[in-house]
Amino acid sequence: RCQTAATFERKVERLAAKAASFAELVFADGPVELPLEHGERVNTRGWWHDRGLRNDDEAVSEVLRRAWSEHGPFDGLLGFSEGASAALFYCHLVAAHANSTPAASADGSAGPDFSGLSFAVMAGAPAPAGSALASPVFELPSLHFASAADTVVSLSDSKKCALAFRAAEFCQHDGGHCPPQRAEDVRHLVNFLEAQRDKILPASSVSEFGMAVAGEETEDPRICPDQRDELEALGAMLAPEELYRAAPAWPVRLAVRLRRGEGVSAALRFTLPPAYPQAAPCFCELESDDLALQAHERELLDAMEVAREPLGFPRVMAMVQAAQQWIDEHEADLAARAAGRGDKAAPEDGEDGEEEAEAWWLREEAEVEDALVAEAEAKAAELMPDGADKRGQWARQCGAGGYGKPWEFVVGLVGKPSAGKSTLFNAATRPESSDREATMAPHPFTTIDPNVGAGWFAAPCPSAQLGCQDSCQPEHGRAHGGRRRLPLLVKDVAGLVPGAYLGRGRGNAFLNDLCDADSLVHVVDASGRSDREGVDHGSAGSGSPKTTDPLDEVGWVRREIHLWMFCNVRAKWGSVRKKAKMANAHGSREAVADRLFGLFTGYRASRQLAQAVFEAAGFSLQHSAEEVVAWGEYELHLFVACFLRARFPIVVALNKADTPEAAGHVARVKSVLGDSCIPVSARSEWWLYEQQRKGHLSYVEGAGAESVTLSPEAPENVREQWEQLRKKVLEPYGSTGVMEVLSVAVSRRGPIFMCPVSDFSTLEGLVTSCPSAPAGRSASAKLATMLMLRPMSTVEEAFGALKHEQMLRGDLVRAEALVSDTTDRGSPQVQVLRRDDVLRSHGVEPHAHVLRILTNKKAK
């Protein structure tokens, strides 16, 4: 519940990777759309409004039947939390189908054939609706994961669910309410799936080879035309004794013989999913009792991967031919190994022995050399210093799919527990009621689920340069000091602790929540009063062994994120090296680049960004295959460190700057980090907001003491607190730092700001024709509207953003920009732009473009 098929897919991505060679996972959304909460942009889903009442059973049944009809048949089920209840409901449908004639669907056609379901896997499963079942009712083999630390579904309830299956296997872990995450739990699940696979598709034998499918006189009508054509072609190209079709005929499963010398040594087993070949790849496994070939299985499979055709084309024959070619080319090595001379036939550099023994990429997650991490991060900071992406090239490659519409910027707040993230979140988002506030408390994990809300940052306003700051009427707030408010999304997630990448605290759940962030703000306790676990020891504890140096805190949080990425990539490094070795042998370097850079796309980045970082880190794209084979642990650390700096620019918020202990720490940290850290007092900003809401004062958000005006009716205690805040925060630092740190986080990605106007003489802003637009917006308001675009956006993409917001319609005819002449105090000049001109900032400071775009139609 409270997730989508996409979020569930991310939670089990480790399982999907481990089982990719033999299993296809299909994810389904529940029928119940849940209301938006905490500023969410996408509605999450559920299966029932109230599982106990079962009022949604018909809708659930329809979703499950449609999934089976469109993507099935399925061999097994995987359900988590309320999804496990849906899986149990699925089992009921299968059992009901087995005891009755197929039901008709709503349009009168025959319902789906549920035959073939062979097993079920459930994690965090609630007890069956009603009460625990008295006796097992399902014959399916099943595997159940549950945790005593689960605060959502109790361990006893999950055990009651397991009782519904006669052949239930129960696995207990300590990870709380989550699908299998630990390496041993994932291995347990993969082993279970492999065992079920072997039952469904037993190992083929020589006597079984032949194209005919036992018991099938006609081809199954559910086989798509592309698959039917490929089967016909395989039957024509291969001899009957070389090809075997397994029963049942749907989905298509087949095996193709491979030969070594004069004897049959192996077979390739293929499964063709329903969406193959247009939208899904085929799955392939090597089956062999030849020990020499088994020893080289990975090399053989990698050779086949290089030969895979793209989606939309038949793949089986190309992969079979690549496998047979590899066997023929390595016959001498295989014969030597079979004769007991494996060491002599091994590669000259002895890499196979290293892989099986002490290869660095086979180490456990906890086995990391801190010295290499520190060295790599120092080198990455030298190669890619903070703010180096002035032109926004990296940012463009991160969000390649977001062009042609306004940038909905997301800032992620990270930091150890009790660093003040929830206070900063509230100060930045200004919730209007207490139920919208993030919990604030000086103890670990006050935030359990991510808080997401609309916050504000300071964007450059062109009104000062155009001499109309007093008459400018921004959509949000007012123009002040050449800046104006603009909204963004702020995401506050539960704090991390040392070892989070190993699963401590909320571990990978915390880290996965960051993937949709464009920049990160690392909230640091500048007082140094709390330890690494987030326990505040108070002013008396400052300087004690239990407290931390804020500068050290900056380092270990970055290290946790680094090791999260590093361990994810290292776990797959063996396959990258095999790709590189095969590329060296066959001259196909695109395969290794595709595999290596593809490992980084899960962090919402493009392969183009990974490639740019690869070259920025000093590696050669032309010689990537040779370099990757020779890489050690340090080189991968360096690549990850550089990628982290490009993908997640980090700005440090030195929070609690109003505490007595903070002054010395702030000066020392700034001397090391420079503009990458901002003194912040979130508590002061929150106090100012609350007092303004009560009518005790007025002030301009993000401005200094001069913008604060006390009300004559303000109580004496408010006046005293204001004086303390002015002396401790606003005078030494210029502001509370809340808006400033968000503004710096945005500027690190080099955005483009655009004020669209209908006329340069009046500077009237364009307005949207969307009926859901905010009320009160006037068509005559000067410079009313501002949009933020991704870096290096073109005029064409700016026009697309205006169409996306329904401010313009039709086709682009002409685009003009109002350019201020900085060398002459005369009036601004109008510059005609081409549709492929790139909008850039002028100078070091952010700049807002004033554009007038003419089309062949007007917005209604």
UniProtKB/TrEMBL annotation:
Limits of the RWD domain: 229-330
Organism per entry: Polarella glacialis (Dinoflagellate)
Domain OBG-type G: 409-700
One GO CC term on file: cytoplasm
PROSITE patterns membership: G_OBG, RWD
Superkingdom per UniProt: Eukaryota
SUPFAM superfamilies cross-referenced by the UniProt entry: alpha/beta-Hydrolases, P-loop containing nucleoside triphosphate hydrolases, UBC-like
Keyword Nucleotide-binding: yes
Alphabetized UniProt keyword annotations: Nucleotide-binding
Disordered, as annotated region: 528-551
Protein name: RWD domain-containing protein
GO molecular function list: ATP hydrolysis activity; GTP binding
